[in-house]
């Protein structure tokens, strides 16, 4: 009487045609982060309904600001610039595009057409939005010999704004190439004589222009800089901070789930 195999899997002796596959063991290095990100999935990371309600109320207030009628177009330009640099422009894309389209259609009618800061800000915001605004708007700031006028040399805010605008240039725009060289030279020469706050802004700009900074890093930095500007709006800043914290928690939860 022969014994039956208790296993349902045929052994190699039972079926010589089946060979055993030897697989190499993986020797992956452990994550350099360890279990750090897994801790983000705790209950303390949950977003409260009170926070969501508060950010919604602030969002509605900020949403009404760009569409409010104002005589000074530069105020709207500064508001749009702040909203973008604080990292919350994705909430108001249609409102921003509507305003910039109106400004673009009105031509160089900013109310401060001789103000270097306003002209440069308008140019940069329109170029960022995809409008092909002409670079010859800066010709008015040149003298008869083709050099930038001496009257703007001490306009730190204007020169810094022109510096940022010049980084929106495309090939063949000689006036913006000249503007970049001029503003870089001026900012480097004056930075040591500026007050610490303005000097820090200038050094940061010389390190990297706005268009090259990562938006979230720029937003985190601008939280401390924005209150020092003339156009500071506390509602906008509070909304931006709350929105930043909520987005950060969402990212932390995503990283925790990926780590698991």
UniProtKB/TrEMBL annotation:
InterPro entries: Terpene_synth_N, Terpene_synthase-like. This is Terpene synthase N-terminal domain-containing protein. One of its GO terms (biological process) is terpenoid biosynthetic process. Residues 32-206 form the Terpene synthase N-terminal domain. The keyword Nucleus does not apply. Its cofactor is Mg(2+). The keyword Lyase applies. One of its GO terms (molecular function) is terpene synthase activity. Keywords: Lyase.
């Amino acid at each position: 009487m022969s014994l039956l195999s208790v296993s349902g899997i045929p052994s190699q002796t039972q079926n010589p045609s089946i060979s055993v596959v030897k697989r190499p063991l993986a020797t992956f290095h452990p994550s350099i982060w360890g279990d750090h990100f897994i801790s983000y999935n705790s209950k303390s990371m949950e977003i409260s309904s009170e926070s969501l309600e508060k950010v919604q109320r602030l969002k509605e207030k900020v949403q009404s600001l760009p569409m409010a009628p104002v005589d000074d177009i530069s105020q709207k330009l500064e508001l749009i610039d702040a909203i973008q640099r604080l990292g919350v422009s994705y909430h108001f894309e249609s409102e921003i595009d509507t305003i910039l389209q109106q400004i673009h259609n009105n031509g160089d009618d900013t109310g401060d057409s001789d103000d270097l800061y306003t002209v440069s800000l308008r140019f940069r915001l329109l170029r960022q939005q995809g409008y092909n605004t002409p670079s010859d708007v800066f010709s008015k700031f040149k003298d008869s010999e083709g050099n930038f006028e001496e009257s703007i040399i001490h306009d730190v805010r204007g020169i810094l704004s022109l510096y940022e605008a010049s980084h929106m240039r495309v090939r063949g725009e000689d006036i913006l190439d000249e503007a970049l060289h001029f503003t870089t030279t001026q900012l480097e020469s004056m930075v040591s004589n500026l007050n610490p706050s303005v000097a820090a802004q200038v050094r940061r700009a010389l390190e990297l222009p706005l268009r090259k900074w990562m938006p979230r890093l720029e937003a985190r930095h601008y939280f401390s800089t924005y209150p020092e500007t003339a156009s500071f709006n506390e509602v906008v800043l509070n909304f931006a901070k709350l929105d930043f914290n909520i987005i950060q928690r969402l990212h932390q939860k995503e990283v925790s789930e990926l780590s698991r």
